[in-house]
């Protein structure tokens, strides 16, 4: 009985590890094909899905639009938005027209089997993903301020 329980736990652990690696790999593939991991030696990518937590998206976009220097050496990916025109009016044309803002209006992000639908910051160093942090309405200012 104990052996069966241990085998089930081991199998569950292996599946969890594989799925986490798969998730990271899908993010990495998206970045390779749409940005390039060699963009800078060290940079971050801010990912904002508009269909996620409304307070998280609003807080993050408001902060970035007021602190555009966050985008000087980092990338911003926006996807799943309903109206680009109203978003530009709300957060400013400069944010959406910035050279480091990627507007994924064709849903390419979703083609990479990425199931994480929350705002996040992905840190890349020497062409390798080193950290993924979720953005929410309680931590967005602290995390985004580190990107200047």
How many E strands? 5
Approximate helicity band: 40-55%
CATH-derived topology: Glutaredoxin
The residue ranges in which pLDDT falls below 50 over 5 or more consecutive positions are 12-21
User: Shape from CA axes?
Assistant: globular
Radius of gyration: 17 Å
User: Could you give the order of strands across the largest sheet?
Assistant: 3-2-1-4-5
String of helices and strands: HEHEHHEEEH
Arithmetic mean of pLDDT: 78
Give a short overview.
This protein has 148 residues and is an alpha/beta fold. It is built from 5 helices and 5 strands; from the N terminus they run H-E-H-E-H-H-E-E-E-H. Strands 3-2-1-4-5 form a 5-stranded mixed β-sheet.
What does this structure look like?
The chain contains five helices and five strands; from the N terminus they run αβαβααβββα. Mean pLDDT is 78; it is low at 12-21. The termini are far apart. Strand 1 (42-49), helix 2 and strand 2 (75-79) form a beta-alpha-beta unit. It is an alpha/beta fold and 148 residues long. It is globular, with a radius of gyration of 17 Å. It has one domain: Glutaredoxin, CATH 3.40.30. A five-stranded mixed beta sheet has the order 3-2-1-4-5.
């Amino acid at each position: 009985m104990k052996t069966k329980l241990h085998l089930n736990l081991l199998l569950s652990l292996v599946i969890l590890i594989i799925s986490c690696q798969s998730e990271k790999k899908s993010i990495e593939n998206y970045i390779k094909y749409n940005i390039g991991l060699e963009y800078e030696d060290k940079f971050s990518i801010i990912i904002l899905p508009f269909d996620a937590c409304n307070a998280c998206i609003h807080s993050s976009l408001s902060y970035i639009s007021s602190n555009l220097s966050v985008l000087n050496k980092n990338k911003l990916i926006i996807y799943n938005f309903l109206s680009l025109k109203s978003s530009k009016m709300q957060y400013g044309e400069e944010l959406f027209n910035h050279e480091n803002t990627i507007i994924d209006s064709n849903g390419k992000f979703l083609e990479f089997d990425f199931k994480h639908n929350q705002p996040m910051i992905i840190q890349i160093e020497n062409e390798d993903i080193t950290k993924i942090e979720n953005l929410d309405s309680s931590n967005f200012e602290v995390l985004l301020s580190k990107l200047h």
